[in-house]
Here is the input.
Amino acid sequence: MSLIALLVAIVAPAALSDPAQEARAQSLEREIRCVQCENEPIAQSTAEIAADMRALVRERVAAGDNDTEIRAFFRQRYGDFVLFRPPWDARTWALWGAPFLLLAGGLAGVLAVRRRRDGEVEDAVAEEGER
Here is the structure.
């Protein structure tokens, strides 16, 4: 049991002395994606690079950087992918707009199928009336 506690103590980053800074660091660690695990925040990842990224977050928080500066640092270093909520700009418009475009395309497809079916029903009714 003590071996497990020792391993956890080695892997876990040192807590910041200021509780407000610790809370900021933990919040940022949940917003930044592990570049190895891809769909896991660095707060939950066990990858070595995630541990390095957590240490960088804590160093920058302790140095006095604000959250925007820390996010910008990771974005510059790893790209937009590293943020779970990438910013809106010319490079990410497709990422943000894709769900709406897909929804509009699906709605247009459903309406087209309905119109086609309504036309077929009207033709069938007209043919039966002619008999």
Residues 89 and 96 are 10 Å apart (CA to CA). Confidence is low (pLDDT under 50) at residues 5-11. The helical segments are 2-11, 19-31, 48-63, 67-78, 93-130. Residues 93-130 form the longest helix (38 residues).
